Amino acid sequence: PSVSARTLEFHHGKHHAGYVSKLNAAIEGKDYADMSLEDIILKSSANGDNGLFNNAAQTWNHAFFWHSMSPNGGGKPTGGLASAIDKKFGSFEKFSEEFINAGAGRFGSGWVWLVENDGKLEIVKTGNAETPVASGLKPLIVCDVWEHAYYIDYQNRRADYLKTFVENLADWSAVADRLKA
Ligand code: FE2
Fold first, then answer.
1. pTM of this prediction exceeds 0.90
2. 113 C-alpha vs ligand 1 centroid, how far in Å?
3. What spacing in Å lies between the alpha carbon of 87 and ligand 1's midpoint?
4. Residue 129 CA, ligand 1 centroid: distance in Å
5. 3-class DSSP state for residue 80?
6. 174: CA distance to ligand 1 center in Å?
7. Which of 58, 76, 116, 146 could lock 19 by a disulfide, CB 3.0 to 4.6 Å apart?
8. 16 CA → ligand 1 middle, Å
9. What's the gap in Å between 62 CA and the centre of ligand 1?
10. % residues pLDDT > 70 (the chain)
């Protein structure tokens, strides 16, 4: 009910699949072919291999996005994650507001993340394929704010889509596990 089957058919079946197949074609026969996806992101970023970086980062970002959601998601975080959010943002409600505003305020295509940076939580916006993986931050959860993520279901109402992500889809137990790991 929050994200339609049609959106997922396009988003997972066409957009994400397209990044994966372009990445596989680009690394064939190169040193990159034997590297982990994370290492491909770091190396292509350092080398300025922009085309390869974009497809590698989009492959990683989307896989992480699917694992940021659950059919039984939403609600409120508990335990250590709840305390860390309260400490940084004041309350879960304030965090939600900041996260939604950050995603809605990201001009053009990109992503909004909750990351751990040096033991502290932070909301980070990235443009296009940019990913916190390349800057050594620890991603905890992400929402895709490219138009392809929401246009079929929400048209121009990106903030409504972000609100639904936070309230109905976000997998806080997975976030708690990542924070502990
Ligand atoms: Fe996407």
1. yes
2. 14
3. 31
4. 9
5. helix
6. 20
7. 58
8. 7
9. 6
10. 100
Cβ 158 vs Cβ 121: under 8 Å: no
Tell me which amino acid residue 7 is: T
Q: How far is the CA of 109 from the centre of ligand 1 (A)?
A: 9
Q: What's 101's DSSP letter?
A: H
Per-residue tokens: 23 = 């990445």
Residue 80, classified by CB atoms within 10 Å of its CB into exposed (0-12), middle (13-18) or buried (19+), is exposed
pLDDT digits (tens, 9 = 90+) for 54-108: 999 999 999 999 999 999 999 999 999 999 999 999 999 999 999 999 999 999 9
- Summarised one tens digit per residue, pLDDT across range 140-156 is 999 999 999 999 999 99
Can you read off the two tokens belonging to residue 136?
Answer: 């050594």
Question: 136: closest CA among 124, 152, 153?
Answer: 124
CA 137 to the chain's CA centroid: 13
For residue 122, how far is its CA from the centre of ligand 1 (angstroms)? 22
The pLDDT confidence band at residue 1, using thresholds 50, 70 and 90, is: confident
